[in-house]
Amino acid sequence: MSQPLVLDGRIVAKAVESDLQQRVKVLVEKTGVTPVLATIIVGSNPASQTYVKMKGNACLRVGIEPRKIELPEETTTEELLAVIEELNQDERVSGILLQHPVPRQIDEQKCFNSIALDKDTDGVNTASFGSVTMGGNGFKCATPYSIMTILKYYNVELSGKHAVVIGRSPILGKPVSMLLLNENATVTICHSRTKNLPEIVKTADIVVACVGKAKFVQKEWLKEGVVLVDAGYNAGNVGDIDLENCAEISSAYTPVPGGVGPCTIAMLMSQTVESAERKYLDI
Hints:
The chain is an alpha/beta fold. It is built from ten helices and nine strands.
């Protein structure tokens, strides 16, 4: 069997960012408008601070203006909703991102659902998910969108293929399943209550692992030539697939790190630019 293709998300992210730089340049030249991505962070979670900084840097690389709104740990749901509504009304803001997770006293989904659909560039509003599922023009969850972008960039055939998604989270497992279905894949969604998981995975042409367990998917579960998409990131820089052993029997795989992750932020940028284009260029 030939060497598997490495589905390098860093290469895809660079290509996306290069395209976005040109699109932002055109937008500014034609309208004088620079897209703004507003990121709300509640509390001082170190990982969240790091992610917000990475997103801010990505904004600057492509020409988007980052706006960071920091709120104290004790912020209430009502106070956060008021901030989101202010951003909804702000004509300059093209995208609104509420950094996950928020403190426990906040109703996170209620806040996600208060983000205006035309500014929900992280795809977290349940109405956005409904639109995407029905083939509408709602914005997609960034990580599932990253997965689809990588697969398309490397011309991985999806139509008619059996994709097994391991995980059913509302921001990853469920939406990526719908996106695969929209591309005419046959999709099986597995989760913690699934019986005979290895046998089901063995039938897959494509495996998407997003279960949050280090090296969960084992080599003996897989058929030769499978495409492996590892959307997990665990302690020790390892994903949800035992890639050390599994990669060799695959036809293609996303590495960890360097696979799905780098492209996820690029998709957030892409949808923020698209939001501005829809509004100001009527695209």
